[in-house]
# Entry
Amino acid sequence: MVWIRLKIAVPLALVMAAFLACAESGSDDPNWVPCPIMTYPNPPWNASGLGSGQSAVGRIDLEASLALGLGFRQPWLVPAFHAVAGSHVEDTFISECTLARVPLDHEQPTASQAIEILVKRLAPRQIARARSEASSPAHAVWLLSGGPGGSSADDVEPLHALLAQRLQPRGDFEVFILDHRCVGRYSRLGCRWSQAETRGSAEGVQIDDLTEWPGCLSSLALDFPHVGSRHFSVTAAAQDLHMLMERFRRPGQSVSVYGISYGTYWAGRYARLFPGHARAVVLDGVVSASGTLQPEERLTFERWDVKLHGVGVAVLDHKCGNDEFCRGKLGPHPSERVADLFKRLVQGNHCSEPLRELGGMPQLKKILGGLLYGWSGRAVIPALLYRMMRCNVEDAKSMKHFAGATVELARLSSCCGVEPSDPFAAPLRSDMLLRNIVLSELWDPAASKEQMLSWSNQGWFSMEIFNSWADLRPQWPVYSGDALFNTSLSTSSPVLMLNGDTGCQTPLWSATHEFETAKSSGGVTVLTWPDAVHFTALNTPVVGGGDACGLTTIAAFLSNPADEEAWRSPPCRQHLRRIDFRGDPAINQLLWGSEDAYDGSPGAQSTLVA
# Structure
């Protein structure tokens, strides 16, 4: 999921006017043209970027990608992307793009303005050559990105090439990605006229909460008339998906859909609208779409810090408390000791100087919350808490070193690091669309800013990402939920759900509720991945290396949903890597100045080979 802060209240009329930015015109007859596999050169979280200065499509610059963090945070992915690089994606697949026009209003398709959506497909070259032959059918898989407001370039583009490679030996596949309506390069909800997202603005491509949002929305209000926010909904995006699936499917071709994070909510809406249309449905990092807010059944954003705290306590008590090494440091019930630690920190009579070095109590909580996101980050949490509990002279030195390791902490605090390598690159995500969908469908309107602040204060892993949105929500032109809002999944397609048991963006309870309420004549299965974080296709490493087990499972399911043995119990599930609370020596050296995260001191001689 994506998040951006907002600290001001925005007038209703200005926000309404902003939505017309999504209604640009385009070509009536889109053509497929060759295009790069990757949008961003060298995305920090993977190794499938274009090399600097290379014109070939899909060449891999592993050296640059490793320098940006893949080997640091997700070393198990290196062999997979080495394999992609070694096979030369562009020699095996044709990457093509088109700008597809869809109606802004699906209820009035002929009278409506049209918007443009970028669609990209990868097909093996032999399939592409036979595209017009009805005797050569293929399967099509459509990948849906997270967010809301995220573009396909932000998270699914690197997986696009990797999944296509893994599906190739299993059958006749082509793999599609598309931008959600109103994100990406075309028909994007944004602030182009006020130039608030340009490099020369106050915050570069970021929109400054206090100084740039008012001008951004005011300039749009002057240029565009009113457009209803319902046109930028999840249901509208699901209708886009179905329309484009039908437009681009070959004779006899089946279609499947694979959604990640918010993409599971998007895919679920499509499956509800068009039950049985898909050959298979994969939901990775499940956003539960129905049920009550208390007890927790339906996943919403205003309780972000509540769910972070719940996952954090589970990591402490169920993971650390059941690990022999970690239990030796924090005891069998770590949360009890952590509660005592925070009580002493609040009183101000314990470890005050190291706490100040870390940025104070709010920043400590943000560090702890951020470390829940990344696979390698969870191992850092007990070490930090252990040193704060003891807080001797050597611990103080180590925590000062830790406080300065900002780059390493940022890399660890992400499941996949969805940012372009150039921080000034034109954003493809849409913060306007993010707010429109979240505040309309993924928010409890009864939650006050005071209540959200109370939740943050009570938790130990609080990020305070969305607390300011409580003041914005009453002014936003939210659209009303349609007939499919807050309903259980009902389809006839086979459905596979995957979720890590320590995923903090989509906690396990979210996937469990969606599974328990879903109905499909094709069968519904949920696979829980021990110790995995968000995005199980990439964050389910196996001992000894090789593909992430989640990727193997997904490829097997998409290849043949009826072959349950192949995707329910692949051999890799018996060899999953688990959290090593000792930490990686190289990461420990960067964070603490010592290979020993718990008892080492900065400056200690390293045994690592240069």
Observations:
- DSSP finds 25 helices and eleven strands in the chain.
- The longest strand covers residues 93-103.
